[in-house]
Amino acid sequence: MTTTRDALPISSSSHRLFLPRPHRSGRAAAFAAAIVALLFATSAWLSLVFSSPSHPLHWPHIRSSASTHLPFSLSPPHPPGGSSSDGSGGSEGDLIAPLSLHHLVFGIGGSANLWPRRREFVRLWWRPDDMRGHVWLDDRVPHLPRNSSFSRSLPPVRVSEDISRFRYTNPTGHPSGLRIARILAESFRLGHKAARWFVLVDDDTIVCPDNLVAVLSKYDWTGMVYVGGPSESHSANTYFSHSMAYGGGGIAISYPLAEALAGMLDECIERYPRLYGSDDRLHACISELGVPLSREYGFHQLDIRGNAYGLLAAHPVAPFITIHHVETVDPLFPGLSTLGSLKLFTKAMKADPMSFLQRSICYDKRKMLTFAMSIGYVVQVFPTIVPPQELERSELTYSAWNRLNGKNEFDFDTRDPYRSVCRKPILFFLKDIERNGSTTLSSYIRAKGRDDLKRKVFCFPRSPPLPDVNEILVFAVIGKMEYLATFWKQLIEDFDEMDFSLSRSSWADASLKVKAHSQSLKASSHNPHKELLQSCRLGAATSTKALECARRRLSLMSSHGGGTASLAVDHRSWRILLAAIHLHYCSFGCATIRSGRGKCMISKINEQLPPLILTILDLIVSLTIVLATILHLEGEDKIIRK
What we know:
Pfam families: DUF604 (PF04646). The protein is of the alpha/beta class. The protein starts with a helix and ends with a helix.
């Protein structure tokens, strides 16, 4: 204003009539007021746009002063086993010790209404002496006597904190997702000593603890790691995320990531009131931290309905870890209840965890049969040669969670069931399994099918495979072996000692022949088994050596006419037992999908034409009924189409 007053005399002497001083001063004041109002309105608009619409304390680490703490520490977290401010100290040896169940903390989500029934599922896999964690319910339940074995076999129960302060606006979901999403933070705040991983599952989930430890051992628990698996349903993955771990199938979160989430989870949850459940909220918060999903194929959300046989029989080449929705699908074994099936299922899982549900394939080139074995679950016997590329696809015996069963409804490889009864496999489901030291002996019983009569009538002369075999026994050595010779040595010794208690005389005769054959091998100065197996180092042979090893073993089996490979009377029972034995081990000579050695068996079949399968009488009869068979199959296909 001083500069304006100094300028007035310059123009006042000559242009006094053209200087309306008060009018110009009012215009400047109005212009200044307009500028101030515009700035105020702009700042108000910006504050409305960039502030939270519902909560005044959102994003505190952006608006707060320098003295405000971040919701999680950017510095490396204190190891849970070392000394820390919370007093959860531990020895330095805990930090370098191999991962064990003691380093895992389980958070099991459930509800008070369903817990009295679903606790029986948890009891099947929970180990109270080796595992720790809690079942988190929405309300109190009647307490069991503390000193009873019934209560000691279950994890302790806690009631989750109140969630009424959080907003939930999803029109189709349930607010319980807020409570379950906070189980991680509540578990972390309990201050478990020497914790490395926090594992979240549901109360209707079956867990294989040994395989879980083996899989998590691959990861560096001192970093932020998010492990799990997506859904089997394509629509579910599309709606939620293909990179989200589903809590029913299991979520494993490393200690540093759990620490970061515990500091910001409540604020993060409030930012996503529109989300559906707990898994997507947890995934949203983990995404804010920039941690991707480490997918493991052993986590099974099991978002399917109906018969899970097709999915379990084609289990991927990965350790089985979890299976969810065990009440939604049909009983896993025919003729048993849901709980009875799960008891047998977990019994096989505990007997040999790493081999459980792993598939092996072998071929009988004389009978043109395919043996596909899912260890601890089912043995499939196909009446034709079926390549591994087809068998590794899951047969659609189930529908998706939305009750549709098209191939596009699933995010994994599937195949349609065989429509012709003459191509369908004969199924042998697990009946029992026993473990004796480092070996297991399991029994598989033939399942009665609705199409058995059709097979006998319409599939002649290719009658159903193994018509007189009702049981398959599988002898197995647990775990990996350094040398295949170890297996053969133990196999020969055990054959001398084992009593198979067989119902058919042919089995008894075969067992006697095996004993005699093993004695002759021991007495022989030149043992072809020993010579062969010394050159077959399991897991260390190159692909070329593996193929050569397989061919040598095949030729060895076929050269001993009265030996282990062809002992079975009528070529039925005993060969199945030995084929199953070969399946489990690697088996050079068997078509294992894991190592891709199926090619050696298939090439062997292609190189040599199979011997005469049918007698002359069978050929004559087949010529007379071939037309009737074709007409029947065509009619059956028309009926199925209708």
